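#struct-pred

JT: dropping the chains for the assembly here, can someone run the whole complex?
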Amino acid sequence: KQEVTQIPAALSVPEGENLVLNCSFTDSAIYNLQWFRQDPGKGLTSLLLIQSSQREQTSGRLNASLDKSSGRSTLYIAASQPGDSATYLCAAFPSNDYKLSFGAGTTVTVRA
Amino acid sequence: NAGVTQTPKFRVLKTGQSMTLLCAQDMNHEYMYWYRQDPGMGLRLIHYSVGEGTTAKGEVPDGYNVSRLKKQNFLLGLESAAPSQTSVYFCASSIRTGNNEQFFGPGTRLTVL
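RK: done, full complex below.
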């Protein structure tokens, strides 16, 4: 069974600092890995999706990398802003099943 | 496009009552999912469907039933609600081919007294 872990559970940084969020997974047989953002009381918003054949994806200040051999993905957020405060979840979609496996998330606070 | 929508947004039930949560998507996606999210437990899959007329059990299916009579709709039913089913319920959908990106609805906050 795929296990997805996100460490740390919470992170607080001053505005302007770069954020590094970690996601690890136990089964490298993944079809893709997706990063989501969740604001309090809201649904999940897709940020980036990395296919298993890709090494990274970029969107604006966000960059996500994938290393299947080591079972890791990292989300980088450059020059953080207070508006980046949210919970970030990663999820692995398996190559041989239909069910996404989620990490518990990292709650980020960016201090002004 | 509205994307994935969920009805209702909030609901309070008494123990033993029944209700149905509706999920609708207008993206012609084949796959649809129901999750529940609880503090400290993360997102857990309840049931899912890989196409019209098909459903399958997820990680925590007990106490729930689902139906997918139309491709765009996925219904989650609680036959006899229990306080343990107090949670936030999310629906998601994805296309079968391509990158299989999952899109989520805004959620339904359910309280069972």
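JT: nice. The two ends of chain A are 41 Å apart (CA to CA). Chain A has no helices and eleven strands.
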